Amino acid sequence: MDVVTLTKDLVKFNTINPPGNEEGIAKFVGEIFLEHGFDVDFQKHEVGRLNLIASRGLSETYQPIILTGHFDVVPLGAKDWSVDPFNSKIIDGKLFGRGTTDMKAGLAAMIVAVVESFNENSPKGGVKLILTADEELGCRGAKKLLTSNYDIGEASAIIVGEPTSNIPYISHKGGLFINAKTLGITAHSSMPELGENAIYKAADAITKIAKFSFDVEQDPLLGYPTINVGKISGGLNLNSVPDKAEFTIDVRSTTKLNNNSAFAILKKELGDGVLLEEYTNLDAISTSEENPFIQMVYKVCKEINNVEWSKKSVSYLTDAAVLTPWLGNVPTIILGPGEPEMSHQTDEFCYVNKIEEAVKIYKNIITNNGESY
User: Which domain holds residue 244?
Assistant: First the structure.
């Protein structure tokens, strides 16, 4: 298989989330795996939405390496694209299209790498791919697998194919997404003293958040936790005192502050007048650089792309937040061909040479997993 052609084929599937519609792409990829001797399992997430689990060469003696990625992409945005977002074109060594960077190039590289890794010898312990629906809105496809008691099995390590420009990262922040609500009493706006303004309550709470920081130790890789209010709504009309307002709170946590503690701190800080409801709660993940798997990945990447790097963490959330603790906190690397700064952008692109390079990196990691290097 040609990895660039496969990336183009994956981009043709419009998997903008919402609604996602990942069933078509999941079945397309599933057919590829079936043709190459993999066992394939489709797990329903929602109507028209599938998670895909594919495996080959599993052993009772050794645990497999897991490669994971997601099928869905974000909306196109308000700005017009200069290229067709679902008909990839190569211009100046860049493959353009929605999802090229985040993360269909990563998916294509994983698919080609695992298929080719069986051409000569079966990788020790075999491989398993967990490809999910509905990742972009809080890793909900992976969480559905977890909460449905799916038999995930065991793993020796996890590779997450999110965009890193083929630089390996060993940690990422957690995500605590909260919907906050304030309530009041409605009245005519000419007599506001008869009502209770929910928007003023929300404004007071948001002002507190704007000045707030979590009093916790700095994480050596992830830094400090962050907090952001990203959306607000409220009120009925111009000439009424509003009796309800809502806003969202996005906390990015570290290993020094778990999400349950962050939620309790915020609840105390904002008081009983602000009702908080969490809808995503995924803690940070981190693996020691001294882990043998991580050291092996570092060596593979250095030999193939010959790039020096110092940063070891990313701030965005990945399915590893679900899978890594589920699998007993096995060593986890975030590593993919996409360009991080192009994620969710208009005229999104991925460098062609990075896609081809990722296949080599993944194959070498798979081949050397469990062996001395």
Answer: 174-282
- Boundary of a domain, candidates 222, 251, 282: 282
∠ CA 160-162-41, rounded to 5°: 55
d(Cα 323, Cα 72) in Å, to the nearest integer? Answer: 18
Q: Which amino acid is at 140?
A: R
pTM above 0.70, yes or no: yes
User: Per-residue confidence of the chain (373 residues) as pLDDT tens digits?
Assistant: 999 999 999 999 999 999 999 999 999 999 999 999 999 999 999 999 999 999 999 999 999 999 999 999 999 999 999 999 999 999 999 999 999 999 999 999 999 999 999 997 889 999 999 999 999 999 999 999 999 999 999 999 999 999 999 999 999 999 999 999 999 999 999 999 999 999 999 999 999 999 999 999 999 999 999 999 999 999 999 999 999 999 999 999 999 999 999 999 999 999 999 999 999 999 999 999 999 999 999 999 999 998 888 889 998 999 999 999 999 999 999 999 999 999 999 999 999 999 999 999 999 999 998 775 4
> What CATH number does the domain containing 265 carry?
3.30.70.360
Contact (CB, 8 A) for 176 and 262: yes
Number of separate domains in the chain: 2
